[in-house]
């Protein structure tokens, strides 16, 4: 009996049908009341009790095999399409493919880079693991400047001179030591500061540095470029204001505010009622910095600026917690799928 069942299984697996009628004929042959499988069921009564379990299971297998096979033959024959007997529907709408999204910091960085590329700035890079000279000394930081302090700088253990850069201004020095003016570079990159991680501070973040050195570069040039940049990034009605400030490597130095991106300057909770938001530090490159990096300060002048990408991204997208940028929670990242 088992042999008979196995033989039928092989036979059924190999069946073909050219059309629906043939498939129906096969159904009758195997699965109808008088079909071959029903016959087997009748014979089953005479199977010895100790074999009943095994034979019963085999018959059930055979039955489902036959049903599946004949259903498949019927479907294939019924479609009668150009693809032959296939049951694949080539006209069905495909499942949508979920696309990844760019990280919000990348989106904003690209936008800033685009704006300055149109003004002729090219990209420059420098190492994140730096030496004291490029991060501080070459940029006119006094030996006892507080920024060198343990509170700010990460030192590489066992080497007091090797540090993680705390600003991208180190790339100003890297570029000037190798290149003579005209220099017009933009440097996006990661920087590190020894801060406790919270919603408002992180031990690493991202900056974009700009440097322009040539003959006759003036503060007016700086102001005009920054105004254009702010209006491209935040909209044509954006106003800027420069407040006097201090950086060791620029003189004079300023901090730039833009009119609040939420209230337009009237005063709201975002700008804490002032109507202004601080977005970057800038100034004229200190002649001492030009000289320290091999550029003759009696011939050339320059300006530099530096901004935090997280800060600008927050202003554009109102991200409340800085930690979101580095946790890579896909629910957060998915919100930027349509943002380019
Ligand atoms: N490096 C400064 C900072 O990290 C920003 C800056 C860059 C200021 C260039 C002036 C010129 O705060």
Strand and helix layout:
Layout: H1 2-13, H2 20-31, H3 36-44, H4 49-79, H5 104-118, E1 122-123, E2 129-131, H6 132-135, E3 155-156, E4 159-164, H7 170-178, E5 183-192, E6 204-214, H8 219-234, E7 240-247, E8 250-259, E9 276-285, H9 287-292, E10 301-308, H10 309-317, H11 324-327, H12 330-333
Parallel strand pairs: 1-5
Antiparallel strand pairs: 2-4, 3-4, 5-6, 6-10, 7-8, 8-9, 9-10
Residues 167, 169, 209, 247, 250, 281-283, 304-306 line the site of phenylalanine.
Summarize the structure.
39% of the residues lie in helices and 21% in strands. Strands 1-5-6-10-9-8-7 form a seven-stranded mixed β-sheet, sandwiched between helices. It contains twelve helices and ten strands.
In what order do the strands lie side by side in the largest sheet? 1-5-6-10-9-8-7
Evaluate the radius of gyration. 37 Å
Supply the number of structural domains: 2
Q: Summarize the biggest pleated sheet.
A: 7 strands, mixed
The ordered string of helix (H) and strand (E) elements is HHHHHEEHEEHEEHEEEHEHHH
Topology-level CATH name of the largest domain: BirA Bifunctional Protein, domain 2
How many angstroms separate the termini? 68 Å
Please name the CATH architecture of the largest domain.
2-Layer Sandwich
- At the first level of CATH, the class of the largest domain is Alpha Beta
**Small molecules (ligands, ions, cofactors) in the structure:** phenylalanine
Structural class: alpha+beta
CATH homology group of the largest domain? Bira Bifunctional Protein, Domain 2
> What overall form do the CA principal axes indicate?
elongated
Query: What is the count of DSSP helices, taking H or I runs of 4+ residues?
Result: 12
**Beta-strand percent range:** 15-25%
Unreliable spans: none
Number of strands: 10
Percent helix among the residues? 25-40%
Overall pLDDT: 90
